Structures are given as structure tokens and as C-alpha cells.
Amino acid sequence: MNRRRFLRISAGVSVAAFLPDGARAAPARIVVVGGGIVGSSIAYHLVRRGAQVTLLERAKPASGATGNSFAWINATFSKQPRNYFDFNVLGMSGWRRMDQEFSGDLKIQWGGCVEWYPVGATADALRTDVTRAQQWGYAVHFVDQIEFHRLLPFVMPEPFAAASFSEREGALDPVYATQTILERAKQLGVNVMYPCEVKGLVRANGKVSAVETTNGRVELDTLVLASGVQTPHLAAMADLRVPLKISPGVLAHTSPVAPLLDRVALAPQAHMKQNPDGRVVTGSDFGGTPVTDSSPEFGQKLMDRAAAYLPELTQSKLEFVTLGWRVMPQDEYPILGFADACPNLYIAATHSGVTLAPIIGQFAATEILDGARVEMLAPYRLSRFG
Ligand SMILES: Cc1cc2nc3c(=O)[nH]c(=O)nc-3n(C[C@H](O)[C@H](O)[C@H](O)COP(=O)(O)OP(=O)(O)OC[C@H]3O[C@@H](n4cnc5c(N)ncnc54)[C@H](O)[C@@H]3O)c2cc1C
User: Fold this and answer.
1) What is the pLDDT of residues 45-56, one digit of tens each?
2) Residue whose CA is at the smallest distance from ligand 1 atom 1
3) Domains detected in the chain
4) pTM of the entire structure?
């Protein structure tokens, strides 16, 4: 019998036998609700430690925010204060670890990110941001015209006053990456069920004992809600308030084209990246403007904006437009951890969930299986909302 099989069969017994004094015994049955990148990562990190995991997804994997995400892996520049910046840096390192664990199968593009602005307030803000990030030890520097053209040979920027290169950042295809993580999780023993919608929670003695689903009742010891914008609705069934705010985001996806971008490009009016399948993905806001227009006309407008910087894009066609709803907590910081009022219910609701997925998976496994409380997560508990 190999080690993995042994751990799976003995989950809940073997792990408990090696736990330090005071640690919580490993729960025998963990149910994760949500097959986005966060739920998939949590399920993967739990099962690789021998836990018994069922993942329930109401539609199909990556059909929520994940499938409509720009999926840039980064810690710039809105990632403040310091704790949140450090958390995102750990997310970036987590992807490098997972890239190794998956032998490159996640197809992450590790080309970094170039950002630039013409003379004005945004260029001044970029200078301030870069200086602070450098003080925090981040691998970012200002670039001149020569380096700019080496990094983005197909991009024609208007004259810029400030440009930066964040060297260690990356991007991925969120649908492909989620499917790949879930496939591995399944191989390790996660029972992935979809379509399977959780319709209700069964409660006993202040805890959740089961979920009622469209496929019947599933008994559990620990429930993880990684259900995206549906998390408040499900948490309310346990009398918990998970405050999210509405934050739509629209992206245009082109037909596949020859390699044009090795890295994320943040132009003044458009952000762009190229997926491994050759599709260029472009949008124009990171949450500032609430646009919900996903018409082909608006998609074409986004593409035209990108083509103003990347002329080769005129050779591609608009293929589809996505409208996604960010999982945006009211104060814009993650909500992570066990709920005080329902001690076997673990919540994972976050924006920047692509960047953070690996480290959330790792920390959730630590907190669920070992009974530890990760200090770095202290600012992100549900209890901060009172
Ligand atoms: C336009 C846009 C751009 C973004 N850009 C970036 C970026 O560049 N970098 C970055 O790091 N992040 C980015 N994000 C944020 C990131 O995509 C999200 O934080 C992340 O995808 C959240 O993943 P999740 O798994 O928590 O949620 P989701 O992907 O929404 O997954 C939740 C899943 O739960 C399922 N579910 C819901 N209710 C139930 C139920 N009752 N029963 C069963 N299943 C249920 C849903 O079907 C869904 O599949 C962006 C988001 C958007 C919308």
C-alpha cells in the first residue's frame, strides 16, 4: 500500500495520532462548496495531506468569478498595507511551488508585468508605488525606452513619463488552471461532484452536520464555503453575515494569434495578456468603474483600445466577451477562516483570488487539519465586521 492510499484510508485517525498537544483532530469528512480556483486549491491542499474531501459545484468548475478573471498573479500596487502585500507575495511564491508540483502543467506565464503612464498624476503615483514596493523588497524597477522595447517588442506605447517592470509576476488561464488543479485533486482522492448545488445546511449543536444538495444529503465534519458571490447566501443559512459588495468586470477575448506578449502589459487605457492558447485578453479597469456591458460592440471597443498599443491585434477577431462578478468583500480584503459562531464552518471569500489561491489553500489546510491559527490571517477574519 503506498503512502497516499494509506493516508486516505486512515484519514482522521493517523493524522490525529501525530498531532501536537492541543491540536484539533483531523476531520474525517470535509465538504468544499465551490469549484472556482479558491475551492479547487483548498481541496487540493487538503487532499495532498491525506484528508477526505468532497467538492460540490453547482454548475461546472471555474464557472464563477474564476472563469471571467484576468488572472494576473501579482502584489502591485494596490496590495496594501504591508500585511496584505506580504500575503500576495506568498500567493506568488505559492504558484511557483505549485508550478513545480504540477511539473509545469499549469502553464503559468512567468514574464512579469510592465506598466506605464504619460506625464501626469498617474505617472507620479507609479513612481511613489514603485519606491514603496522597492522598500518592501519587491522585485520591481523603472524601465527606459530601450528596456521597454526589449520586454514588449510588439507594443507601441505613446511617450511615457514613468514605466515599471515587476519581474516576478505572472498570469495564467484561470479556466485551464482550475481544471488542472481539480483533475490532480481527483487523482489524489477528492470526490468532485457537478452539477450539484447546495440548497441548504443541516445544523446540529451549533455546527453544520450536513448539506442538502440537488443530489441528496452529504454528511460532513467540516464545511468550507468557497462559493464566490454566493457565499453570503449560503453563510446566511448558518446565521452568518458575509458582507460582499457588487463589483463587475468585463473582458474581451480575441481569437488565437501568434505570440505577441510574454508578460502582462498595463497600458494607460488597457490591460493585456496572452493566454497559452494564443488568445489575447484585454480589459480596461481593475474595479474602479462598474461596467456591465458585455455586448460584442463593447468588446470591440476594448479590443480597439488594446490595438492602439498592440497593432498586430488588428489581425485577430473578437471571439467572446466575459462579464464577471468579483468576490469583493465590503472592505476589499479577504474573509478567511472558521466562523466564531459556527466553529466547523470555514469561509474563503476573496478578491485577488487567483493570486492568493495557493496560499489560501495551504493556510486553510493548516487551520483545518492542524487546528493552528495562521497569524497572517488575523486581519481577515469574519469577526472584524462585528
Ligand atoms: C473581471 C475580473 C478580473 C479579475 N482579475 C484578477 C486578477 O487579475 N488577479 C487576481 O488575482 N484576481 C482577479 N480577479 C479575482 C479572482 O478572479 C477571484 O477572486 C477568484 O476567481 C475567486 O475564486 P473563487 O473560487 O473564490 O470564486 P468563484 O470562481 O466565483 O467560484 C465559486 C464557485 O462556487 C459555485 N457555487 C456557488 N454557489 C454554489 C452552491 N450553492 N452549490 C455549489 N456550488 C456553488 C459557483 O458556481 C462557482 O463556480 C478578477 C475577477 C474578475 C471578475
Assistant:
1) 999 999 999 999
2) 249
3) 3-67+175-243+330-385 (3.50.50.60), 113-167 (no CATH), 248-325 (3.30.70)
4) 0.94
